[in-house]
Amino acid sequence: REVTEKLEEVVMIWTKQIQQVLVESKQIRREADDVGPSAELEHWKSRMSSFNSLLDEIKSSRVKKIISILQAARSKTLQHWKELDHSITTAANEAKDNVRYLYTLDKFFGPLAHASPVMMEHIPSLMNVVFMIYCTSPHYNTSEHMTSLLLKITNQMINTCKTYLCEG
Prior knowledge:
By secondary structure, the protein is mainly alpha-helical. The chain is built from 7 helices and no strands.
């Protein structure tokens, strides 16, 4: 019984830490007004890395042993643990998916940043890929994500035009 209580305490600490990571991941991002679309890809790559590291830790043999001991002891802390495990897995899958979809835009980021204002040749293809992401992505097709992405694309176009005007 004493061992079970100690292990439950450990799981409760992990639970609080995981909840903190989940809460932070859902907070509104603060970004500069002129940040470009590559920042969106970097954000999701960073999130994917964080959640994958957390998943690796959760799936480690040490954690699995503790969870199996608590399962054998029929601990009540496991219900919440299972929910958090599911939430972390979902967040990791979302980040991985978003990175995969945003990588399809990566080939446009360079030309968008370094082209002359006559960048119209890139816009139709870029918008087709954005549309494809919106139609096929199970996670990224929200109004919030699309607005953020389109805002960053617009920011990049404005920055490119400013640079062209100042150099020209």
